[in-house]
Write a structure and sequence with these properties.
It is rod-shaped and about 90 Å long. The protein has one domain. It is an all-alpha fold and about 80 residues long. The termini are far apart. The chain contains two helices and no strands.
């Protein structure tokens, strides 16, 4: 709480170069954060697509097994 109360005073004492350096640091951190979110969404999307593919494959196998069982029961 004490630091928050003193922030305007600290900003008033900061030189323009300090402000520019802080803005550059924040921009760089935001860029890394954006890359992290993009990577996370890419991994999540690939995982979901992989699961959809597995589900389709399992459904085809189940359909095939049902057909085999029906064929055996007819004989």
């Amino acid at each position: 709480m004490h630091l928050i109360a003193h922030l305007p005073l600290l900003w008033a004492q900061a030189s323009p170069e300090d402000v520019v350096l802080e803005m550059a640091r924040l921009q760089r951190n935001f860029q890394f954060l954006s890359y992290g979110f993009a990577a996370a969404w890419t991994i999540l999307t690939l995982f979901v697509l992989m699961m959809v593919g597995r589900e389709r494959k399992l459904k085809r196998q189940i359909t095939s097994l049902k057909a085999m069982l029906e064929e055996r029961q007819k004989k």
